[in-house]
Amino acid sequence: MTLTKTLIATLVLLSALAIFASGETIFPNYPKIQQEVSISSQSLPDLYPYPVQKENYHEPPDISAKSAVVVEVVSGIILFEKNPHTKLLPASTTKLMTALVALEKCSLDQIVTVGEVVVEPTSMGLAPGDNISVRALLYGLLVNSGNDAAFTLAASCAGSVGDFVREMNYKAREIGLKNTHFTNPAGFDDPAQYTISRDLAKLARVAIASPILAKIVSTKSTVVTDATGSKTYFLENINKLLGEVVGLEGIKTGQTEGSQEVLVTQTTRSANTIITVVLGSLDLFAESKSLIEWAFENHVWVTP
Length: 304
Fold this sequence. Notes:
alpha+beta; two-stranded antiparallel ribbon; 11 strands; globular
């Protein structure tokens, strides 16, 4: 009886490993399963729960987005995608990369002086001559989607805005964004500024791994001040799903005339986390919400 149980357990484990190994992933750092696995606790790789379809699985919702992806964060397994390699305008999701580079090039408590202000179409309310911390600018950048904050960070954390944009593209290559290119730090439409949904999922994963950025993108509203404390900036997150979708933790919206609507989200339920990306959507919030609910309702996380 003991031998039979052992054989059954071995077959179950091998089946689980085969299913997991066949799943396509987009995050390269997850442990790979070797083709030959000896069934012993010493030789098994360090594996984490991963998602599989439930028995009563339903097909994903039909969405208007030109491109989309739903990916499990730990394993990188893709749960859904639509035109994942189509290059599209990233709009203000660009600001996730702006924030990453600013964190590398400036300290959070560094005080910078605002120069020329770019405000359209969204801003945090900066004026030329304002003295403000990088931390406050990051809040203005990611909560209020301030274009004034984007260009102020770019001008202050590198020799020029052009130098900063070059750093953004260096960082893109460093983290494996092979189909992404930037020409400005705010996300203004430019044929040479583009990304794909898979790259945005990778960018979101890297950005939210930063504790300060994770805190900022999950902030619904806040108030920051200039360095003197005399000027106040009231900031409100444009992401309407915060506080509406259970477990939603950010990340970033975007919308321009050329890009239509863009949204990257991260959601955690029962310690399981997914990232969703919609590019070129006609209803960023409804379509992202439907993808999130579909992912959790139609998958169960198992441990091999």
